[in-house]
Amino acid sequence: MNLTWILKPLVKVAAIKNSPKRIRAYIDGLGIKPADNISKDNTQDIHKESIRVCAVQEEIRLLKNHRQYTDRMHGFIKEAADRGAQLVTFPEENGTLILGMLPFMGTALKLLNRFTGTKKSEDRDKAQRIRPKRIPEKAQADAYKEGKAEKKNQGKARAPLDIAKILAPLSSFLVDVFETTFSELAKAYGVYIMAGSMVLEDGGKVYNRAYLFGPEGNIIGTQDKTHLVELEMGMGLSMGSNLSVYKTDIGRLAFPVCMDATYFETFKILKDQGAQVVIIPIANMEEYNYYFALRGIWPRVQESGVYGIKPALVGNLFGLKFTGKAGIYAPINMTPEMDGVLGEAGTYNRDELIICDLDLKAIDEYRDEYFSDENLRFFKRHFPRVYANKEA
Questions:
Q1: Could you give the CA distance from residue 183 to residue 208 in angstroms, rounded to a whole number?
Q2: Which residues contact 198 (CB under 8 A, 6 or more apart)?
Q3: Helix, strand or coil for residue 89?
Q4: pLDDT digits (tens, 9 = 90+) for 31-63
Q5: What is the rounded distance in angstroms from the CA atom of residue 221 to the CA atom of residue 254?
Q6: Which end of the chain is more exposed for a tag (fewer CB within 10 A), N or C?
Q7: Cβ-Cβ contacts under 8 Å for 290 (sequence gap 6 or more)
């Protein structure tokens, strides 16, 4: 179904109402005062022993214009900056929320809900409200079985529409709003912002792409998601082919997206490139379960010896349910409770900010007897053969 002829006039109207010029004027009118925790002209004010970072846990909302979107993002950034954060990180799909400025978004989300086959389970809902050690084994087993069944159904499904063709006329509008909003807010506060990701079309392909903005409002870099979930594959998204580490005044940062943390190779590659802090923006469309969540950032941090930051998109919208807990993680021996957690949200479905201090010198010096010994001769001999035999 070709919807381009319908989308173009709608996007044109939305682009006029939410133009970069209007966004800049609106942000200028907020009277933002630069944060004093980063000096653009005097970078020696940044102390490597104490970099303050923030992971945003954001409840999903339908934002109908640039003012609502700016106010929402500004609220998180202002509170984080007021509390001394030098880096503010947002969740996966944070930019895709801009689609709410289009009049048909509500209907589209309802359609997506039908497509994904989202359903509720009393046992799973009960399990996610209980602390991990108290979760009954039967509830855990039932949750696991239901999760496998849902993933199996999603894997068989295919999007009823060509996502690339739909996003082609939308991407320019989405990118303009997204880049302008975060560029202006980063510059106004003088902080680094990993703004989360958005789904966009680029060169005829569709990617889930995350952005990092610098304190001067510049785009430091982007990162395409390299591991897709079944739903994204069914929608025709393309996988990213590179992992990048960006050198900044607050450390060497990387920000692969969500499912990328499921595989140890992602963090190993980034660690070998010199990453000190790895940010994983997530938007998990599943019931929250402590043990399912452990497949991600926590074990990767322990294996790699880096800091990990996990901003999360949570909440319900038109039957679509997102859960997760934003958190900031470190190797076990570098955390006060010896649990690998520096800070973590107390809920899985509401707005929260997690703010912690990171010691970059300490992470550079960190060595662990269990994870610091590598048999490079063994790796070099076996890894090329193993991956060469796998189908792309």
A1: 19
A2: 93, 94, 95, 96, 98, 174, 175, 178, 208, 209, 211
A3: strand
A4: 999 977 665 554 445 788 899 999 999 999 989
A5: 10
A6: C
A7: 128, 132, 135
| pLDDT tens digits along 366-388 | 988 777 778 889 989 998 988 88
Q: Which residue from 89, 88, 85 is spatially nearest to 36, judged by alpha carbons?
A: 85
244 and 278 Cβ atoms separated by less than 8 Å: no
- What is residue 392's predicted lDDT score, i.e. its pLDDT? 67
Between the alpha carbon of residue 231 and those of residues 107, 113, 227, the distances in Å are 19, 11, 12
DSSP letters along 319-370, please?
Answer: TEEEB---EEE--GGGSTTSSSEEEE-S-SSS-EEEEEEE-HHHHHH---TT
Q: For residue 263, what are the CA distances in angstroms to 93, 266, 269, 297, 375?
A: 20, 6, 11, 9, 20
Count Cβ atoms within 10 A of the Cβ of residue 369 and give its class: 0-12 exposed, 13-18 middle, 19 or more buried. exposed
- 74-120 pLDDT per residue, tens: 999 999 999 999 999 999 999 989 988 987 666 666 665 665 554 44
Place of tokens 């025709």: 236
Helical (H) or strand (E) element with 247: strand 246-248
Token pair 């933002």 is found at 32
Three-state SS at 253: strand
Q: What digits encode the pLDDT tens for the residues 279-314?
A: 999 999 888 888 888 889 999 999 999 999 999 999
Encoded tokens for 298: 């926590």
Q: Tokens in use for 229?
A: 């979930």
| Residue 44: C-alpha distances to residues 37, 80, 110, 204 (Å) | 11, 21, 50, 44
C-alpha angle 44/222/199, rounded to 5°? 140
The encoded tokens of residue 103 equal 């009049």
Is 134's pLDDT higher than 70?
Answer: no
Structure tokens at 2: 């070709």
